[in-house]
Design brief:
Blueprint lengths: L1 E7 L4 H13 L4 E7 L3 H4 L13 E3 L1 E8 L4 E8 L1 H8 L3 E5 L3 H13 L3 E5 L11 H12 L3 E4 L2 H9 L7 E3 L21 E5 L8 H9 L7 E5 L5 H10 L6 E5 L3 H10 L2 E4 L8 H8 L4 E4 L5 H4 L6 E4 L4 H13 L1 H15 L4 H17 L1
Parallel strand pairs: 1-2, 1-6, 2-3, 6-7, 7-8, 8-9, 10-11, 10-13, 11-12, 13-14, 14-15
Antiparallel strand pairs: 4-5
Helix pairs in contact: 7-12, 10-13
Length: 370
């Protein structure tokens, strides 16, 4: 039996759920291990992952540095001990996520031991438009010497091709949440006028842009629930007061699990006004809860997840007038909300782990046979 090692940053819940699915459903073909560059405790994440159910998991020792990026604070993970762990695990094939210091060590090890290496990324041309020359060179080095590629979206695939990947070796395995957790969600959808936005309260998520749009339709009947927390909360409260929409806006704080599902189900419309997201998994969560989705064109998942004008609408959050007009149209049309709700729930099934795992493992099987 071949031993597959998956290398990734930290145990995000959606990743852990996916890895558990792979271990449970491909155990007859592969002995699957997962190596994390760091744990959630190192970065202070509020995530709660089901790590206990994950077998054959390894955590590297690491330090996490906070760096200010264009719209928020990013993390730089410096891990060590990857080579030692690889020598212990002795994988027959490796799938490694993104381009970082851990990946560099893993890539060197694979080259030295002639182990097939698959490059896996969420990154897109847009999300990586500001990377530096040395980062571009590193990506091209990884791309040039990889046995195969896994992209989390069609936009990620475009970026891999841009960096030199062979299109025939790219497999799209969309980032997705475990729809089994949402099996009962959205069955009693109510076409109400409560808007919900989910994500950190940071500049990148574009809540200020949503406020500008909502200020234009403040006389309509609507309510906004903001799920998440972050450093921009004070500024957003001030903006809501100044725009005269504070009475319609509720700051709910961070929610997860059943509380988050309940918040989705109590809403009538999901709004995602982000300035930039490689993917934007919250859109899939909202779809699983049968919500019509008004989503930013700068969330690269929008083009895969949303059937524009059917399950939702893709908008430019910087165009406040158009953004407001779209929200108004959906708010005022009960039948449109019902129609979009049904299509959103139906579309969410296209991104079950059963479907997204197949191209992931097809990439692995191709590399093993090459």
């Amino acid at each position: 039996m071949k031993r597959l090692l998956i290398v990734t940053n930290q145990p995000a819940p959606y990743r852990v759920d996916f890895f558990i699915y792979l271990q449970e459903n491909f155990a007859a073909e592969f002995d699957i291990w997962v190596l994390f560059s760091t744990g959630n405790e190192a970065s202070g994440r509020k995530w709660k992952a089901d790590e206990e159910r994950l077998k054959n998991k390894v955590f590297l020792k690491s330090k996490v540095f906070k760096l200010r990026s264009a719209y928020d604070t990013s993390e730089k993970i410096i891990s060590y001990g990857a080579t030692q762990k690889l020598n212990e695990i002795r994988p027959d094939i490796v799938v490694a996520s993104e381009y970082n210091y851990t990946v560099l060590a893993v890539k060197h090890w694979c080259n030295k031991h002639k182990v097939p290496y698959i490059s896996w990324t969420d990154g897109t041309v847009f999300s990586e438009r500001n990377i530096k020359l040395h980062q571009k060179l590193f990506r091209k080095y990884v791309i040039r010497n990889s046995a195969g590629f896994i992209a989390s979206s069609s936009k990620s695939m475009e970026n891999q091709i841009f960096l030199g990947a062979e299109p025939s070796k790219i497999f799209i395995s969309e980032l997705a949440t475990d729809i089994r957790r949402y099996a009962a969600a959205g069955k009693n959808y109510s076409p109400n006028n409560t808007l919900i936005a989910v994500g950190g309260l940071i500049e990148r998520k574009g809540i200020d842009l949503l406020f500008k749009a909502l200020a234009r339709i403040k006389d309509l009947d609507w309510k906004l629930k903001l799920v998440g927390d972050g450093p921009e909360k004070g500024n957003l409260i001030a903006q809501a007061v100044e725009s005269d929409i504070m009475e319609k806006t509720e700051f709910c704080g961070f929610l997860s699990g059943e509380e988050l599902i309940r918040a989705y189900e109590e809403a009538g419309i999901f709004v995602f006004p982000t300035r930039e997201d490689c993917f934007g998994l919250v859109t899939h969560e909202a779809m699983c809860c049968a919500l019509p989705c008004i989503v930013s064109k700068y969330a690269d998942s929008s083009y895969d997840l949303v059937d524009n004008l059917k399950s939702g609408v893709i908008i430019d959050p910087y165009d406040a007038d158009r953004f407001a007009a779209v929200i108004k149209r959906v708010l005022l049309d009960k039948e449109l909300k019902k129609s979009m709700s049904g299509r959103a729930k139906e579309k969410s099934y296209e991104f079950s782990f059963e479907k997204t795992a197949k191209p992931f493992m097809d990439a692995v099987k191709m590399a093993v046979l090459t």
